[in-house]
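Final report, Chapter 2: Outcomes

The project's central promise was a pipeline that accepts a single protein chain and returns its three-dimensional structure in a standardized token representation, suitable for archiving and comparison. That pipeline is now operational. To close this chapter, we reproduce one record exactly as it appears in the project archive, with the input sequence first and the structure output second.
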Amino acid sequence: MKLKVGVMFGGESVEHEISIISAAQAMAAIDRDKYEVYPIYITKDRLFYSGDVLFDMDIYKDLKALEKKATQVTFYRKGNGVVMSNINRGLFAKETNIDVAVLVMHGTNGEDGALQGYLETLKLPYSGSDVIASAVGQDKVIMKHILENSGLPLTRWFWLYSNDFTKDKDMYVEKAKDLGFPVIIKPACLGSSIGITTAHNEDEFVSAIKESSQYDRKLVVEKMVRELKEVNASVLGNATKHKVSVLEEVYKADNEDILSFDKKYTAGNGKMGAKGGNTKGSGASKGMASTARIIPANISDAATTYITQLASDTFKALGSSGVCRIDFMIDGESNDIYVNEINSIPGSLAFYLWEKSGVNFTELMDTLIKLAIDRKRDQEKMIFSYDTNVLSGFKSDSFGNKKR
């Protein structure tokens, strides 16, 4: 019997559309001889929809029409499993057991532990990092504190709440000056280069804080690496057993301070594989795979070995699992190497790095599903509660309740 896999994507994040592209790529790569695939689209209003119509990428061009053609669903436990059911349950309501969820969510309420917590409550196995690791990976401030505490190399940085900036602007301007301009300002809990700004002087810094504050109330300020070379690695597995992919060097034009959202995602986009497709990542719409890159990265063997070890150490320190992408910065002047950030559910699931590492997209999806099921089995061996009789000594009036 085939396992029933629900692929969850969309969400209210500003990375909503990127999630759709990544999910289409993932669904096209899943082996249909082994799994039944159910697309589960989460709207920007946090409503869940399913149905074969969601395999067609054209449906996402008109989200109002999508909600009329797809079926709104809900989830609940039934016996030892999880059921997906039509929200408008009538005499002929359709129910489908879901065995495992593959999460292809980017950003807020999808990659940050919120959805993972919901699935933990349902006891539904899911791919990727658990609640804590997902939350930590999404919040750059907490992530940096953990990495710093673990002795991993970071560029100089500080963080602030945007409302504190309005109260004590001069103090934060001085902190930025202490780092030394230019600096980069990032929303703490977003990805895909959204909301990231740069500042080369005090006036630009004040404007950049206002710009980034539109996306998050918590902000990170980092010393910019001037002669920057960006190198990424993907890690696949769990904290105790994992492997690191070949490294990539991301191309950035000489006049760019950061790699923009458009440069990451919009090059070469077209149609994706539809229902039943098994493209192994060959769809015309490349998503994150469209970014200009060099694989393997054009760096020394020593730097490759060092970054590979840093990727493993970062993955372990954050308690990550599934497939992640970890981004690094190399200072072209000093050759210093810094950990930049982790992407717990990377765009396109970093399949392009694993294909270059001898793992095709179908094998990658198979591994993610197995990791999800293995983690659930491990959890079932752990003790989370005790059978006790604590309440036997309490009476109804113990809490001040009066008998009627």
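Archive annotation: Confidence is low (pLDDT under 50) at residues 259-285.
This record, like all others produced under the grant, will remain available to the consortium after the project formally closes.
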